[in-house]
What does this fold into?
Amino acid sequence: MSSYNCPNCGNALALQFAQAKMTTCDACATTLYLRDNGFLNAGSAGEMHTGPMLIKIGDTVRIDGGVFDIIGHARFDYGPGWWDEFYAIDGAGKGAWVSVDEGEVILQRPVSETLTGTPRAAPQLGATFRVNGYTYRVTERDTATCIAVRGEFPETLTVGEVYNFINARNPYSEVLSGEFSADGVQWFIGKWIDPFEIKVDRAA
It folds into this structure.
């Protein structure tokens, strides 16, 4: 665990994740980007309205045969509502995302292998495309705005930034998600999880 101090208020920041690119200060709710072994103040972490949640930062989650520690929480507004993205690490320090939207849960990991056939721009709803020999159909295409962040992340998330995304499914119920921006496309793959199959060990 690495230790730093918030450049805004001096609060001690203990990082659990060696590859962290950003974190938030618990004391002053400032977003901090890791730069050259120090942190850069990136502004407000946004307002995270509290309420009943399936999981939260500090929990250990047993899901799909794996055990994950929840270390980051981001919230995204897509107009009619919002959903939560939790960043988690397993015992080997590998990361995954757990998305929770009105009781629906999806576990996804960043795609590490080379993908062939992925679109460079977000395809239309209902469109199909083939990736590594599998056919995917776009089941969701939308934009979302990051409205709040807490904890640690392997990438920089900015409150107020708008993301273009798709979710696509193949016949085996795998979900391939793409985030499209001026910097390129990020791909994540996973599957929907029955919330009743998730075991949560609450943080003290």
Remarks:
- The radius of gyration is 17 Å.
- Residues 116 and 132 are 5 Å apart (CA to CA).
- The chain has a mean pLDDT of 88.
